[in-house]
Amino acid sequence: xxxxxxxxxxxxxxxxxxxGKPLVIEEVIVAPPSVHEVxxxxxxxxxxxxxxxxxxxxxxxxxxxxxxxxxxxxxxESVGEDVKEFAKGDFVMPVFLANxxxxxxxxxxxxxxxxxLPFKLSNLMPRDETGRFTNTKGETLYHTLHVxxxxxxxxxxxxxxxxxxxxxxxxxxxLLSCGVSTGVGAAWITAQVEEGSTVAIFGLGAIGLxxxxxxxxxxxxxxxGVDVNASKxxxxxxxxxTDFVNPMDNATKSTSEIINEMTDGGADYCFECVGMxxxxxxxxxxxxxxxxKTVVLGVDRPMSKLSLSSHDVLHNGKTLTGSLFGGLKAKSxxxxxxxxxLDKKLQLDEFVTHEMKFEDINKAFELLLEGKSLRCxxxxxx
Length: 382
Description:
By secondary structure, this protein is of the alpha/beta class. Helices cover 24% and strands 23% of the residues. The strands form 3 sheets. Strands 3, 5, 6, 9, 10, 17 and 18 form a 7-stranded mixed sheet that branches. A 6-stranded parallel sheet has the order 13-12-11-14-15-16, sandwiched between helices. It has a 5-stranded antiparallel sheet with strand order 4-1-2-7-8, with no helix packed on it. It is globular and about 65 Å long.
């Protein structure tokens, strides 16, 4: 048995101490796992735009000091009481969305929204609302999205953890912990994109490109990418994007008008991947009447509102839906994505634009802020 089992672990973590300020590499203390919890040695973590959003918030759900990060993979170091699903040495992936496997929603094929541990932007552990991180002075360090992966060791609830095939390299597996899975899942599970269909994607960041990848896998024949950055079209081609619309190129027509003309009535499936109410409305306006479906993936401001015509909703027969984590159930669907990658059906390598040491995490933040990175993978132990 490891000498660390049941005892606190001292390790390095990148601590966000103020909104928008560089993270500080510090020695932290990670408590042993409690009931239904697992302590994980993080191998690789990647930087997601949601980390930037939380890092920049001065008010709740922004909390400081905090350990950010939620895309990661690692090895089980030890388990708490009543943990039967995991054992020391398992190759695992933490996921921000719970999958208890026992509630009515987790058992139902149509939902991935756990009722036992419903999603919330908590800064502590999900069951008892206490923390597992302190610094050497005894100061509490808050959690992020039930994962907190910007640390060499973390504690995760069993409902937020899934075992994965160790054949997949950790610097690729971590991408499936949030962004890529969300995009691919939105096309595959939420929208159920059909062969021969037309898709429009608003925003070609990592999630938008992952939607394109999912739509490509599902057999969509036309994938229209919408972005104000013209260089995104060349990147998008790698993931199946066939057409590109830059809203800045046309001062007389809205993006929805352009897409409606391009598609002779609208796309079968539209995806909003930016987090702007106005873009959700544009996406809804250019999905085809009768069967068109608009899927919202972007994270907007907390109090943002949509404005849709009730007449149009009734008379045009369109669907508008959200998709948290792409509709995926982590404990059953992640294994499929891993297999797709190992079988060369799913592209992951193309999402990784940078890899670096954990100590260079602030450089990774700069690259994402500057729009120069899709996914930067950080190796935690070098």
